[in-house]
Amino acid sequence: MSEIWSLFGSKIASILFMWAMIERYMPRHFRNFIDRFSQQLDKLLNPYVEIKFFEYSGSYMRSSDTFSAIENYLSSKSMAQARKLKGTSTRNSLVLKMDDYEEVTDELKGIKFSWSLRKIVPMEKSLSVYPASEKRFYRLTFHGRHRRFVTKTYLKHVLDEGKAISMAKRQRKLYTNGNGDGYSDKIGKWSHVIFEHPATFETVAMDPEKKKEIIEDLTTFKNSKEYYAKIGKPWKRGYLLFGPPGTGKSTLIAAIANFLSYDVYDIELTAVMSNAELRKLLIGIASKSVVVIEDIDCSLELTGQRKAETSEKEEASDGAVGVVKKQAEEGKKEKKSQVTLSGLLNFIDGIWSASNGERVIIFTTNYVEKLDQALVRRGRMDKHIELSYCGFEGFKVLARNYLSLESHDRFEEIRGLLEETKTTPADVAENLMPKVGNEDPERCLERLIQALKNSKEEATKKIEKEKETATIEESSGEGEDTEDAVKTCSRV
Ligand SMILES: Nc1ncnc2c1ncn2[C@@H]1O[C@H](COP(=O)(O)OP(=O)(O)OP(=O)(O)O)[C@@H](O)[C@H]1O
Ligand SMILES: [Mg+2]
């Protein structure tokens, strides 16, 4: 056996020696021919193509987005197929990824692909100040006949899916603009906290039809990148939410942001000093975001003027106290927002608004009739959604959320009372919420029924009082009319 091995070794050594000689003295064109021939032979024997995607790329060794998108794309396949996995923990959860040299397969439209995680380990010690590190990369292998499909379709599919997974997984943020205290470094800048509002469409109490319509609208919007590009419209959508306080406008905004997995930019318009500052804020808004301006009626110039007029009247009547008040007011006035309606309209759909598309802009108001029609016209605010008092369907959602009740004997009684009163979902929720640790759902329902009965009674009393006042006014009005008539007659 040892003889065979030594014979084999010496044969190999002589072949290598011969090859080195041939390579050295062979004419170049002949060598090129052999290279081409060996490549053709390799193609014939191994029809598979490989693509490598390195973890770090570029001269600054930035972590590659493509690598992390592939990592996300392969995560579920790794969980199902890989025998060796690596666990890393993020803020919220534990993530499992395939270990080095593991291999998984994927399939799209009947074509099979193989992915493996490899690394290049440096052979020598680096002289650089930075220690030489391993270069990790994903290797994609596929049959050469699918080359076109891979470059045109498959890689796009992998990257899109991978990015979508990382968008859904990422820690979302709630941004707000500077606190308006005049610090120059805050002007036109956003500060943020982690967005963790738990509201979802399942927990929002509203008419099921309306809810379905909103979900469909948002889904269509989210999947319409190409459509918006085709019709030449910036990829954004405007929502106007209106209704009395406590009907769920802010809750719905959180549900929308959670549904779309977008960040939220909550603009405090009164803290924005000028249109230019508003534009700066707009430029700082990333794509995939919900931009919110709450109580838009209170932020607009019109309302501000009305308030200013009132305070001036008060000052006039207050005398000396009024002077002190006036001085304080003047100090405040210097810092008053100069954002105009046209500045706001530009913010919504001016040329700058098209940068970083994929945005939903939401305005909320308690008084829709106060708003300038230019601001809320269709095209700017594409969808007007009224959030109203709690109906029976809304109540059922709240009963499920707060008491885990699907049905109960007292539901019919509550249905009747809700129809006869104007109760906000916030009030219903407050009454349904158990007040002590393990409060019986029966008691919570009883509390709600009592509250509804009280509100019904109050409403009846109010109507009666209004009727009384109207009768008194009518009778005194008649007297005035007669007086007027007498005066007019006497003048004649
Ligand atoms: N439609 C709803 N579905 C579920 N919960 C609701 C709903 N409406 C109100 N609530 C409850 O009432 C609270 C107040 O609601 P929310 O802040 O969304 O009302 P709003 O319409 O934004 O009021 P405002 O006009 O005063 O800003 C919420 O924290 C939530 O618990
Ligand atoms: Mg609100």
TrEMBL record:
Entry-linked Pfam families? AAA, AAA_assoc, AAA_lid_At3g28540
Name the cofactor(s) required for activity, per the record. Answer: Mg(2+)
Q: Which UniProt keywords apply?
A: ATP-binding, Hydrolase, Magnesium, Nucleotide-binding
The annotated region (Disordered) lies at 458-492
Composition skew (Basic and acidic residues), residue ranges: 458-470
* Reactions that this protein is recorded to catalyse: ATP + H2O = ADP + phosphate + H(+)
On whether Amino-acid biosynthesis is a keyword of this UniProt record, the answer is no
Q: Where is the AAA+ ATPase domain?
A: 235-391
Keyword Magnesium appears in the UniProt entry = yes
Q: Which family does it belong to?
A: Belongs to the AAA ATPase family. BCS1 subfamily.
Which protein are we looking at? AAA+ ATPase domain-containing protein
